[in-house]
């Protein structure tokens, strides 16, 4: 493997395989926990059943011995009846014969008078045996087993009953029952053998169900992927099918359709912008070219100063349009807040009013706002914003343009009001679009590029503000609202 080649992951990359693996692992953990609980619960319950069975057999044996009856050797549980002072067992069975207790009893005899009728349970170790016979219920090496016993005193047996048992009158007897774990262990092993294949089958079934369930659930995603792969930047008109189930895939499809819709709008806006820009560039170029071609065709009859003036005017128009287009391109790529500082909007408006070049007709340009009004932003961009608003007002004003700056709560408000023909209410938003022509007297026949208001609104939004056209009885009034900023002295200077 190449040293620069990334190491391949061993985990499955498919979402279906990952989901199946995760479901299998979770199921395995759950099955192990459940199996462990079942194993111990069955083992405990089986041990309790064995103890209850031994206790029942013990009571039966005690009743038989108390009546002077020697119990039969065939029994469900091992037992032994011993007597104090007697070497051999009184009775035995249920597997105890493998120890040959007829010669010597296996379990200890009572050392004294016990508590008659009281059942005692304790672990006892059985002795080892030299040989092992088929069907033995005890191991050859012996072992420690749980033993239950009950004592019978002299008052529990009559002389005839004692004689029938082969013990002297007044002897103390003890009845033993051995609780064997083989039944509980056999039951536990059987349950374990059943649980293992059942667990494996459940594990495989869970993984398969998870795999196919995820596969079915991802079918809409695959359809969405195939459709979105066919979308091109020039034609993002495709839409994905929204499932009617209402789950996460529906939200994904809705979001993708919304994104595709925005892309379609952006592509249409870009095409419209390119077409409008080409049209705007064609008009001054055509005028300039026609004027020069006429002058070159009839040099003797051409008014060269007028031709040069026309060429200069159209060139300036081309220059302004190119600068506006470059500014829009820079604004689209520049991060908001670059070069931000505290700017006195009132001082900026007053300076712009004083330094604005004289118009070609009698026009009064005033600014009302003596108190400082600080906002935070890029000084050059804010100056361009105000200049665009003033240029628009000057082009369409009849006699007067009024700038007003004031503070309202946490906002600084600047208005630019002219006494021109105004803007129809239905065009109040269209005037901010790029290259929009209006049918009334506020068209761009006065020399504008059609981008000034669009640039102004874009700059207002980049500074966290708004730019709107407010209704007025006379003329047009553009209102700029920007967030207030503390004065430079309050922040340590700028």
From TrEMBL:
<dbReference type="InterPro" id="IPR036890">
    <property type="entry name" value="HATPase_C_sf"/>
</dbReference>
<feature type="domain" description="HAMP">
    <location>
        <begin position="215"/>
        <end position="268"/>
    </location>
</feature>
<keyword id="KW-0418">Kinase</keyword>
<keyword id="KW-1133">Transmembrane helix</keyword>
<dbReference type="GO" id="GO:0000155">
    <property type="term" value="F:phosphorelay sensor kinase activity"/>
</dbReference>
<dbReference type="Pfam" id="PF00512">
    <property type="entry name" value="HisKA"/>
</dbReference>
<dbReference type="InterPro" id="IPR003660">
    <property type="entry name" value="HAMP_dom"/>
</dbReference>
<feature type="transmembrane region" description="Helical">
    <location>
        <begin position="20"/>
        <end position="38"/>
    </location>
</feature>
<keyword id="KW-0808">Transferase</keyword>
<dbReference type="InterPro" id="IPR004358">
    <property type="entry name" value="Sig_transdc_His_kin-like_C"/>
</dbReference>
<dbReference type="InterPro" id="IPR003594">
    <property type="entry name" value="HATPase_dom"/>
</dbReference>
<dbReference type="Pfam" id="PF02518">
    <property type="entry name" value="HATPase_c"/>
</dbReference>
<keyword id="KW-0472">Membrane</keyword>
<keyword id="KW-0597">Phosphoprotein</keyword>
<keyword id="KW-0902">Two-component regulatory system</keyword>
<dbReference type="InterPro" id="IPR050428">
    <property type="entry name" value="TCS_sensor_his_kinase"/>
</dbReference>
<dbReference type="InterPro" id="IPR036097">
    <property type="entry name" value="HisK_dim/P_sf"/>
</dbReference>
<dbReference type="GO" id="GO:0005886">
    <property type="term" value="C:plasma membrane"/>
</dbReference>
<dbReference type="InterPro" id="IPR005467">
    <property type="entry name" value="His_kinase_dom"/>
</dbReference>
<dbReference type="InterPro" id="IPR003661">
    <property type="entry name" value="HisK_dim/P_dom"/>
</dbReference>
<feature type="domain" description="Histidine kinase">
    <location>
        <begin position="276"/>
        <end position="486"/>
    </location>
</feature>
<keyword id="KW-0812">Transmembrane</keyword>
<protein>
    <recommendedName>
        <fullName>histidine kinase</fullName>
        <ecNumber>2.7.13.3</ecNumber>
    </recommendedName>
</protein>
């Amino acid at each position: 493997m190449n040293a620069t080649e990334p190491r391949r992951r061993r985990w499955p990359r498919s979402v279906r395989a990952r989901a199946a693996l995760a479901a299998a692992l979770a199921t395995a953990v759950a099955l192990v926990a459940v199996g462990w609980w079942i194993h111990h619960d069955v083992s405990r319950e089986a041990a309790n059943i064995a103890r209850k069975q031994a206790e029942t057999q013990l009571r039966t044996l005690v009743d038989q011995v108390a009546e002077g009856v020697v119990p039969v050797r065939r029994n469900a549980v091992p037992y032994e009846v011993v007597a104090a002072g007697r070497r051999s067992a009184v009775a035995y069975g249920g597997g105890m014969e493998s120890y040959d207790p007829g010669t010597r009893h296996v379990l200890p005899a009572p050392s004294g008078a016990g508590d008659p009728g009281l059942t005692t349970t304790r672990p006892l170790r059985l002795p080892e045996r030299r040989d092992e016979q088929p069907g033995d219920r005890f191991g050859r090496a012996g072992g420690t087993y749980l033993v239950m016993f009950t004592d019978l005193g002299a008052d529990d047996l009559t002389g005839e009953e004692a004689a029938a048992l082969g013990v002297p009158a007044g002897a103390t007897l003890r009845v033993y029952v051995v609780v064997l774990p083989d039944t509980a262990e056999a039951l536990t092993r059987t349950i374990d053998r059943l649980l293992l294949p059942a667990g494996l089958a459940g594990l495989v079934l869970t993984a398969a169900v998870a795999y196919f369930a995820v596969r079915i659930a991802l079918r809409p995603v695959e359809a969405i992927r195939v459709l979105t792969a066919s979308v091109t930047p020039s034609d993002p008109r495709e839409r994905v099918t929204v499932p009617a189930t209402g789950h996460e895939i529906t939200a994904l499809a809705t979001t993708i359709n919304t994104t595709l819709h925005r892309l379609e709008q952006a592509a249409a806006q870009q095409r419209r912008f390119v077409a409008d820009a080409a049209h705007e560039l064609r008009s001054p170029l055509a005028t300039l070219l026609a004027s020069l071609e006429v002058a070159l065709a009839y040099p003797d009859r051409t008014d060269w100063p007028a031709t040069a003036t026309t060429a200069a005017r159209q060139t300036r128009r081309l220059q302004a349009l190119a600068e506006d287009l470059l500014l829009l391109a820079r604004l689209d790529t520049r991060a908001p807040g670059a070069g931000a500082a505290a700017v006195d909007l009132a001082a900026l408006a007053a300076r712009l009013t004083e330094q604005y070049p004289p118009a070609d007709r009698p026009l009064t340009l005033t600014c009302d706002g003596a108190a400082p009004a600080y906002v935070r932003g890029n000084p050059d961009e804010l100056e361009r914003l105000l200049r665009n608003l003033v240029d628009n007002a000057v082009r369409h004003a009849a006699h007067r343009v009024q700038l007003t700056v004031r503070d309202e709560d946490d906002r600084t408000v600047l208005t630019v009001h002219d006494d021109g023909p105004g803007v129809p209410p239905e065009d109040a938003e269209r005037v901010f679009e790029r290259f929009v022509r209006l049918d009334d007297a506020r068209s761009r026949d006065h020399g504008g590029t059609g981008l000034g208001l669009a640039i102004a609104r874009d700059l207002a939004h980049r500074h966290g503000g708004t730019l709107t056209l407010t209704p007025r009885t006379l003329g047009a009034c553009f209102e700029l609202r920007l967030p207030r900023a503390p004065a430079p002295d309050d922040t340590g200077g700028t």
